[in-house]
Give the backbone structure.
Amino acid sequence: MTEGLRERIRAGDREAFAQLYEEHARAVYNHAFRLTGDWSAAEEVMGDTFLDAWRGREQLEPGDGSLKPWLLGVATNKARNANRGLGRRLAFLARRPAPAPVADFAEESAGRIDDARQLAAVQAVYGRLRRGEQEVLALCVWSGLDYAQAAEAMGIPVGTVRSRLSRARARLRKLAEQRLAEEKKEPPRHRGEVQHEAAIAALPFQEFQEDPR
C-alpha cells in the first residue's frame, strides 16, 4: 500500500498527496516545534515541508518503506533555516510585555508537581544540546523513528545516529539533573509558575534515562 502511494505521489496524484498529509501532518508539525521551540515557526516549517515535498515528488525513491523519514528529513532542514531567524524573534518578544501569571485554580498532587518539574527541567536544558543532538532526539525519541529511518532523514550513517543519540541522552539527563539540583536550592515558587510546553510534556522523563532498544 505504501509502495502504491509512493508511485501515485511521484506521478502527481493529488489525492495520494492529500492522504500523505493527513497521515503525517501532525508528526511534521510536532517535530518542527521541538526543533524551533516556536508554534508560529513550526506552522511555517510544516507548510514549507509539504510544499517542498510536492515540488520534489519526482525525486522520491521507489520502495515500500514509510514516507515519514523523508518528510521529517525535509522538516529538519526547514527548521534549521527557521532557527537562523531565532535571534530576531527573541528580540521582538523581549520588547513585548510579559504575560500574566497563570492562575492557580486546581489542586495538584505532589507526584504531578514532581513530574512537571522534571519535564520543565528537560525543556529548559534541551536548547543547550548541540543541534545534531537535538535533531536526533527529536527524530528517535519524540517522533519514534528507528536508527535506520533517522539516518535516512538526517543523511548520516546509522552508526552516527546511535552514537549521537547515546551522547544526547547522557548529556540531557545530566543537564536536567543539574537543573533540578539547582532548583532545590532556590525558594519554592507558586504552583502556577511551573510551566512547560505541551509537546515537551508529552514525553516521559524516563525516556532519557535508558535506551529501550
Summary: Residues 87-94, 98-113, 190-210 have pLDDT under 50 and may be disordered. The domain at 108-208 is CATH 1.10.10.10 (Arc Repressor Mutant, subunit A).
